[in-house]
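Changelog excerpt

This revision adds worked examples to the README so contributors can see how folded entries look when concatenated. The first example is reproduced verbatim below.
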Amino acid sequence: MGQVIQFVSKSERERVRLIQEARAIYDSIFPSADPVSERQDKAAIGRDGVSSLS
């Protein structure tokens, strides 16, 4: 009870799909240097209070 159903048009779904596909292609061409060390760096910054992680 209390659920909200949101209408998403076919064109909006296609737009989202194309964006996801483009991001996947971009990531395959330009991979991140080292995702594990980047996460550790962000965590270290977050512990110092300079940056927060969501």
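The second example, added in the same revision:
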Amino acid sequence: MTIAPQHTEPATTPAPVAVPAARAPGCPFDPAPAVHHTEGPVVRATLWDGSPVWLVTRHQDVRDVLGDARFSADSHQPGFPFLSPGVRVIAEDSSFSFIRKDDPEHARLRRMLTADFMIKKVEAMRPQVQRITDDLLDRMTDGRTSADLVAEFALPLPSLVICLLLGVPYEDHAFFQERSRVLLTLHSTPDEVRASQNELLGYLEELAAKKRREPDDAIISRLAARGELSDEAVAGMGRLLLIAGHETTANMTALGTLTLLRNPEQLAKLRAEPSLIKGAVEELLRYLTIIHNGVPRAATEDVTVGGTLIRAGEGVLCTLNAANRDETVFPGGDTLDVTRDARRHVAFGFGIHQCLGQPLARVEMQIALETLLRRLPDLHLTVPFEEIPFRHDMNIYGVHALPVGW
């Protein structure tokens, strides 16, 4: 579908839904009904502050919006949608790096990091990621038969890897993980967000200044050495990579493990045929899609999407989780199938802003799940499924804890 500017109003406007939408009571892996089963592919919704926004739910429409320069990622654009008061504080911060910039500035900053996350370079890290994975499982299982998989495996694995890449001391992980939690909690107040943001940026600015004096081969040191970025700008880019580099993969690993435990026939297929792991990771990314509240954009021109006119200055949320359940693209999409070809999913977004670190996330998930299933053949939950604490309160979905035994 081509998105073209038109000046016709939709024939009908469905009643607006609230965003973030209430979750499905039956299955915490599914998108909320208000997002997944809308009255049309583009519907009106209402944000926390009463401001209107368009929800784009269909796979092709989501790709079209995210690939169209007339929909801006700049949070200073009129109509840009914010999911909470705290998210507004984060998004309006000019140091938030390229994620909230449009080209050409977006491209200029992103190019500084492209080489660090190229597939060939990330694939060369497999032995290192495998060693970290094995070490964590060695410690977790040493003389024990149960643990919280989030705290002892899913979270430390990507945290160790991103700290290594960035040059951030892992001994400071409690500091940055706590600040990340505040920044990602939908109910954090603006004051709480500002405090955590300032503390994290201050820490990274000091680290950038130190790297200028004592350089190494890690990303923050190389960004600081370029000479074209201030310590504040280096800190902004470092913050984005640090948070995204551990929160997303950690939650996908834990949630993916839980999903497989809840789908024993799919788990059995993976155990019987480990070569399915790469495709299974893509299917889990599609099926779970941990960005549940939408990717925000603001229209800078009048554009028609899915038959609905979106005017300049109106906000849009591209609901990736609904798009990844689009039956026209993924038949039977509400069912997990580890043999499915799910490569067209949009879990990492689409267009120029799609996730820079997706090659690393894939490698980490592939190694984590393959190793976990191979080394712990009797992995199981140690609490009823109903007692698992899901992250309904967070901007990145997942579970707060996952008590398991083996």
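Reviewer comment on example two: The mean pLDDT is 91. Residues 231-262 form the longest helix (32 residues).
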